[in-house]
Specification:
Trefoil (Acidic Fibroblast Growth Factor, subunit A); four-stranded antiparallel beta sheet; three-stranded antiparallel beta sheet
């Protein structure tokens, strides 16, 4: 069962309820109970809040640095889909914690951001969805240490697609981006349901068509599982 979350700000609040995040001073606090809720990120190209169809999944459910994330069909028994909120708050909070640059804070400081941790079968791995290096065109998403600054922070860029953001679909920009006119945003190419597409990674690419006509393959929604 899924509950619609209009932005990853709400996803951040899920973790707040589990132990207090949302400010830089609270980033180090992780309560043992209750466990953070699972979060599902889906593409607006292939699903809706009512029927997400395909959600972000750690390939083969393997918790190791460099393991890519893909779009797989929703499956409650797939541990690769066990993703939880790790940290969340304003971009300015991540800046205060040393996790994004001053330039990123200058451009996005009042927007919400989050880190998403892989927790197969509820066991946190301290590996977050991120990038291996500073964002560049067509770089794939993969698991990285949650302590890695910039590349493991994801910004809810509602300002670059306000019309769709009002409906719960928005670009998700990587916190290591340095191009602020067309930042590096989560992007999916192809059809996830086609044969041989199960391990096609999600990537980052320059956001195009912003702010009025961002394509669905660069728009995302978030659900609480």
């Amino acid at each position: 069962m899924f509950i619609k979350i209009k932005s990853l700000a709400a996803a951040a609040l899920l973790t707040t309820a589990a132990g207090g995040i949302g400010t830089a001073s609270a980033f180090s606090a992780r309560a043992a109970t209750p466990a953070p809720a699972k979060i599902a990120v889906f593409s607006a190209e292939f699903g809706t809040a009512a029927n997400p169809n395909f959600i972000e999944t750690v390939s083969h459910g393997v918790a190791k640095v460099g393991q890519p994330t893909v779009l797989n069909r929703v499956n409650g028994s797939n541990p690769g889909q066990d993703i939880i909120g790790h940290r969340g708050g304003l971009v300015s909070d991540f800046f205060k914690a040393g996790l994004v640059s001053a330039d990123v804070n200058k451009h996005y400081g009042n927007l919400n951001a989050a880190q998403l941790e892989f927790a197969p079968r509820g066991v946190p791995s301290h590996l977050c969805v991120g990038l291996e290096a500073a964002a560049h065109q067509n770089e794939r998403l993969s698991l990285q240490s949650c302590d890695m600054p910039g590349t493991t922070v994801w910004i809810i860029d509602t300002a670059d697609s306000p019309r769709t953001a009002a409906k719960g679909y928005f670009p998700i920009v990587n916190g290591s981006s340095t191009d602020y006119a067309h930042p590096f945003a989560m992007t999916y190419y192809g059809e996830p349901g086609h044969r041989h597409a199960a391990d096609k990674p999600i990537r980052v690419a320059h956001l195009l068509g912003n702010p009025a006509r961002v394509h669905d393959n660069q728009l995302w929604g978030v659900l609480k599982k």
